[in-house]
Amino acid sequence: MSDTKTEGQKLEERLSYKRKNVWEKVDEEYIRKAFDFCEEYKKFLDASKTEREFAANTEKLASSAGFKRLDDLIAANKKLKPGDKVYHINRKKSAVLAVIGSKPVTDGVNILGAHIDAPRLDLKQNPLYEDTEMAFFKTHYYGGIKKYQWLTIPLAIHGVVVKGDGTPVEIVIGEGEDDPVFHITDLLPHLAREQMQKKMSEAVTGEGLNLLLGSMPFRDEKVKEKVKLNILNILNKRYGIVEEDFQSAELEIVPAQRARDVGFDKSMVGGYGQDDRVCAYPALRALMDIDTPAHTAVCLLTDKEEIGSMGNTGAQSSLLQNFLANIIALSDDSYSDLKLRTCLSGSKMLSADVNAAVDPNYDSVYEKRNATYLGHGIVLQKYTGARGKYDSSDASAEFVGEVRKLFNENGIMWQTGELGKVDEGGGGTIAQYAANLGIDVLDCGVAVLSMHSPFEITSKIDIYMTYNAYRVFCSI
Ligand code: MN
Ligand code: MN
Predict the structure, then answer these.
(1) Do both 236 and 287 map to the same domain?
(2) DSSP state at residue 153
(3) Nearest bound ligand to the CA of residue 354
(4) How far, in Å, from the CA of 116 to the mean position of ligand 1?
(5) Is residue 267, in this structure, part of any structural domain at all?
(6) CA–CA separation, 113 and 122 (whole Å)
(7) Residue 189 sits in which domain range?
(8) N or C: which end of the chain has fewer CB within 10 A?
(9) Which residues line ion ligand 2, judged by CB < 5 Å?
(10) Distance of CA 45 to the CA centre of its chain
């Protein structure tokens, strides 16, 4: 065939950039491995619907892979050497892990940074009430949700209640086969004439997201709120808690369904919280699966990204700096602030976060030459932000070039893209907070359909390509 190509065709092949569909370019063995990887991914997703669960499962995975707790190493004054594996779980909600490289930490580290929180509904601190002989929980949504998507789907409750005596009680209900689930009602179409005229953003209100919990009264004529009392009685018997305990609780309402294969060809994964666990899990697994790298490899898993990365578990906290300071102190005889700064400014990071795949049902919001596509490999996103790149850290051409070269040399299929048309909207990631520390950082992750919905869609081939890309990045 090749000798029949015209001069122009040959020139076009040599000079033009074309995005490729990964499914058409990899062999069957690669596809089989992608499917196998996604089986493990789906299990991890089901077991990690909250940041606390993701952090706890990170600790399990890390300790089974030979990672040692940072605090134990500090207590034992144990010095780190190349190949050592270490982790720190921060306040049960975020985590940092490292594989120590053969070069000094002050030469800079390679970081994979993802977030492990996801949009959801939190319970308010005084949540329980009765109305019309039904019991409900008041909620306060967390992160960017389209509120109507949370109505009339089976919901589960995950989290922790700290009792009056200080003991924590972990709660997960709505996931087991015989567990009950919970529900937020919607108006029947027959009576929704007025509701249907409203704007989507106003048809369902924040204060309207009340979780239905029960309808059976406690049988006692003298009690006023019998259904509420019955629920309190069940909660007390099951968990040993009283109503005041909700004041010191963090309970999250999440979709009750499991992650599933999507499509006749099973080429996609559908599940809750894939932003950003579809990057966090491959990042974590990449770190587990590398040999001793030259540069120390770090995986940073943060909380609170969906509400601005604030707080002592978010990417704006001192979590990463404290961890690196300890790594320097444990690898070196004399720690200094200057060594930490030298390490940071020599460090590189892939901000492992998702991008919006083009959705042909809503294609007016995408600029198709600069958008990302399902099945076209890992997404490199030079800048995020909105309205003229506002709030973006904008990776340098040099660093994008470095990552591009690394991926091309290692058979990683990648695409680039922005989040939607200019002025259509936008978004941010943890990239800017790492960039503020002097780190070279590029957003780099998986394209997602139906992002921030209770059931987000990703491509299996992209997930596996992303895992391989992260492994390449943290092996150098
Ligand atoms: Mn994200
Ligand atoms: Mn998000």
Answers:
(1) no
(2) S
(3) 1
(4) 9
(5) no
(6) 25
(7) 120-255
(8) N
(9) 275
(10) 10
Residue 159 sits in the same domain as residue 144: yes
Distance from the alpha carbon of residue 353 to the mean position of ligand 2, in angstroms? 8
Q: pTM to 2 decimals?
A: 0.97
Contacts by 307-310, CB closer than 8 A, 24 or more apart: 307/117, 307/142, 307/143, 309/115, 309/430, 309/433
Q: How far is the CA of 1 from the centre of ligand 2 (A)?
A: 46
Which CATH number does the domain housing residue 241 bear?
Answer: 2.30.250.10
Same domain, 282 and 200: no
Query: Strands 414-416 and 378-381, how do they pair?
Result: parallel
What ranges make up the beta strands (E) of 91-232?
94-99, 110-115, 120-131, 134-142, 155-162, 168-173, 211-214
229 & 301 share domain: no
Listed residue (357, 379, 380, 373) closest to 442, CA to CA = 380
Q: What spacing in Å lies between the alpha carbon of 276 and ligand 1's midpoint? A: 5
In a shared domain, residues 114 and 126:
no
Separation of 381 CA from ligand 2 center, angstroms? 15
Question: What pLDDT is attached to residue 1?
Answer: 54
Expressed in angstroms and rounded, the spacing between residue 289 Cα and the centre of ligand 2 is 27
Structural domain includes residue 445: yes
Q: Is 9 inside any structural domain?
A: no
Would you state the structure tokens that stand for residue 398, as one six-digit string?
Answer: 């040099």
Domain boundary residue among 255, 281, 296? 255
Please indicate, yes or no, if residue 468 is contained in any of the structural domains.
Answer: yes
DSSP SS3 for 397 = helix
Q: Does the pLDDT of residue 463 top 90, yes or no?
A: yes
> What is the CATH classification number for the domain harbouring 26?
3.40.630.10
Same domain, 436 and 299: yes
Provide the H-helix boundaries in 150-239: 193-197, 200-203, 226-239
Tell me the pLDDT tens digit for each residue of 404-440. Answer: 999 999 999 999 999 999 988 888 899 999 999 999 9
